[in-house]
Amino acid sequence: MSRAGLDKNRRDVAEMFDGVAKGYDRTNSVMTLGFDRRWRWLTRRVLDAAPGERVLDLAAGTAVSTAEYSKSGAWCVAADFSLGMLRGGRHREVPKVAADAFHLPFATDSFDAVTVSFGLRNMDDTVAALREMCRVVRPGGRVVICEVSQPPWRPIRWLHHNLVLRLLPKITRPFSSNKDAYAYLAESMRDWHDQRGLAMRIAEAGWDEVEWMNLTLGVVALHRAVKPAR
Question: What value does the CA radius of gyration of the chain take, rounded to a whole number of Å?
Answer without folding.
Answer: 16
